[in-house]
Amino acid sequence: MPTHTTDLDDFLCPGRDEPDDDTRTVIALLSFIGGGFSDGQKALAKAAAEDAGVPEAFALSMLHRHAGPGSRSDHFWVARRVSAGRLQYRLVSPTPPSSVPDTTESLS
Q: What is the pLDDT of residues 10-30, one digit of tens each?
């Protein structure tokens, strides 16, 4: 019989997969950026790396990969230069799905 919560989770859901490095890192970055983290790019990558259990270089690459204007579905944040050599990140709003015109014809 399981004795710890994690043991119980494994007992109840034996086929459950843990999130991969990409997913854990993006979740950590979203959490820090959404929480107003403002200590700069390298500090953000370091904090996310520690939280996700990945190397800093990996977290930094994910920070760059998912930065953008929000026009792509994998751009979750934008960077803004706040001083010489210092970037601040903020989350972007998800782009709404394009409205599809109704092409059905009336049968009357």
A: 555 556 578 899 999 999 999
